[in-house]
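for the writeup, i need someone to sanity check this before i put it in the appendix. the sequnce is what the collaborator sent (i think, or maybe the updated version? ugh). structure was predicted straight from it, no edits. if anything looks off just tell me and ill rerun, i have time this weekend
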Amino acid sequence: MHVNIVAIDPKILVGKRLQMSLSKDRTPMLWQNFMPYRNSIKHRTSSALISLQDYKNPFCLQDFTTTTEFDKWAAVEVSKVQDLPENMETYTISGGLYAVFTYVGTPQGFRNFLSDIYNEWFPSADYILDHRPHFEILGDKYRNNHPDSEEEVWIPVKKKIKTSFTDL
């Protein structure tokens, strides 16, 4: 599994959000409400769309269930906030380290992809999960529901702290 560790500066997003869980997934409704307004957002930094998950408590795979609630955003990155379209909100992603993975496939395979990251990559990595938003960048290669669709998966990380000489 290929990963890049990337340090980012804070990012300003403009978009819409809904509270949901996996069992009460409202993602299609969120994007249907956002997409008609995306081109009216000024000062966009690119044409890419951002799907962001903001977990109220630190994300822990063992405690995460299909009923765990989180805020999901459909957004774009902007260089500054000015003249927001009606019913749009802003969100700032704090800077920090992210593990960036590339997912290729349909939405149906995404959950298995995430499972591989948390169950295979993290246990052997020099990083642990950090409590910041998780997000996906849906760029030019993103094709909703297409098997060749490609997106970047950004997971917040921080370096593991070495606790003993055997960890060195």
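The CA atoms of residues 7 and 79 lie 18 Å apart. The longest helix spans residues 107-124.
thx in advance!!
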